[in-house]
């Protein structure tokens, strides 16, 4: 007699590998932090799909198709019996293990011939990636990670201590790019900001003056200035030609919030207005 399997107890089609991958993915997603997401402006590209680059705490850079994300969200709403948390998950187009620690910031350098994606993180490195090379990868996601090599790898300088000792490599918390000359600016954990020449890979200038590590940085193109925000509670405006601080701004004057820091900086399109985000409520 043929024994029929009871519904729900037939393990002949069980996929152990898929089950393990699902467990690992859920665990990874539950403890991962997304530090930055940037859109790639591809108005001149033949493919109109909008792409998004995401920098995460696991050291990875991942690109996503915005149309796929929207389609997945629409499917989740159309099928209420599916749990939204599971239905909304979208696989990236490409994933690169960019840094050995968390990736704190990412910025696009929109070269018309070869657009680059720059990333920085806790390991003190700034790396440049060929964006088109990332998107054209044909490997399955399970084999991606180390399949793309950076076109540029910059490392923050170490400071000399007594008896020739060197300090640890300071982390990079934020980066900004000058569209005028292609310089790259980094806000580092040693209370300094660095200006790098993308073509030569050399540090052109160091901006010193803050008393605590830097959270953010922005470029003011028209005036050849860069603005930094720090844990010391101030924002400073620097002259990119001389490297000197031209103005110090303390946005929070209340004594009750003396420990407030400047966490983010934004400059409007006309470069006439500066907005500072602080830790005080």
From TrEMBL:
One of its GO terms (cellular component) is transcription export complex. PROSITE patterns: WD_REPEATS_1, WD_REPEATS_2, WD_REPEATS_REGION. The keyword Repeat applies. GO terms for biological process: mRNA export from nucleus. InterPro entries: THOC6 (IPR042626), WD40/YVTN_repeat-like_dom_sf (IPR015943), WD40_repeat_CS (IPR019775), WD40_repeat_dom_sf (IPR036322), WD40_rpt (IPR001680). Keywords: Repeat, WD repeat. This is Uncharacterized protein. Belongs to the WD repeat THOC6 family. Coiled coil: none annotated. It comes from Aegilops tauschii subsp. strangulata. WD repeats lie at residues 207-248.
